[in-house]
Design a protein that fits this description.
The chain is an alpha+beta fold. 35% of the residues lie in helices and 31% in strands. It contains five helices and twelve strands. A five-stranded antiparallel sheet has the order 10-1-2-11-12, with helices on one face. A five-stranded antiparallel sheet has the order 5-6-7-8-9. The protein has a two-stranded antiparallel sheet with strand order 3-4. The chain is globular and about 70 Å long.
Length: 220
């Protein structure tokens, strides 16, 4: 990886997973929130429903991600009210990309730093997944991604070997959990639990909510 990629990965501090399936999309993330080497929050949900058809996950500065979620939720609702049509997943991804692009190029003493993944289902029932990198480009994901999360090297390494193009949502749930387990074992900025959401034509479901608690055992 070049210096810019190394810098982005090391500062992002989280583990995100997005998997495209034959019958939908699976998105997952860990629950640890950090400030440098300090764990600030052990129960921070990073995969969040924006509305009844869209899920957003983010890596980077927590305040930027939370503000982005609020803005996207409001802008999509305004667009729906004005046009009388529900925005597509692609439109939502491009909205996020535009916000990121503008913010990072406007002069500020504190730069906007957030990478996101957005998944959802369209009115025709098709499910899509997009990744938006911190500089503001939106790319449709055809298989899987971990955005610029610090757990990305471990997640992508596992998914490269185990992902199958015709994978079902049910199998992808297990695969997402295994990917997060792999990253939380090696990435110090990830851990404490994870959430997994499924996105299909039937809607969005929060299918896994797990907390990792420390267990101390005598060696002998």
């Amino acid at each position: 990886m070049d210096n810019e990629l190394k810098k982005s990965v090391l500062q992002s501090g989280t583990s995100l997973v997005g998997i495209v399936c034959k019958d939908g999309v699976v998105m997952a993330g860990d629950r640890r929130s950090t400030a440098g080497t300090i764990v600030m929050n052990k129960n921070k949900q990073k995969v969040v429903m924006i509305n009844d058809y869209l899920v957003l996950s983010g890596t980077g500065v927590a305040s930027d991600i939370e503000m982005l979620q609020k803005i996207v939720r409001a802008e999509l609702r305004l667009k729906e009210l004005k046009s009388k049509f529900r925005p597509s997943v692609k439109e939502a991804a491009n909205l996020i990309a535009t916000i990121a692009y503008r913010n990072i190029r406007q002069f500020s003493t504190i730069a906007f730093v957030a990478g996101t993944m957005v998944g959802g289902f369209n009115e025709d029932g098709s499910a899509e997944l997009y990744t938006v990198e911190p500089a503001g480009s939106a790319v449709q994901v055809e298989d899987f991604d971990a955005n610029f999360s610090s757990g990305m090297p471990y997640i992508l390494g596992l998914l490269e070997r185990q992902y199958k193009k015709d994978i079902s949502v049910t199998d992808a749930i297990d695969l997402a959990v295994e990917a997060l387990k792999a990253s939380t074992q090696r990435d110090i900025a990830s851990g404490n639990g994870f959430d997994v959401m499924t996105i299909t034509s039937k809607g969005i479901k929060h299918v896994v909510e797990q907390i990792i608690t420390p267990e101390y055992k005598n060696q002998k």
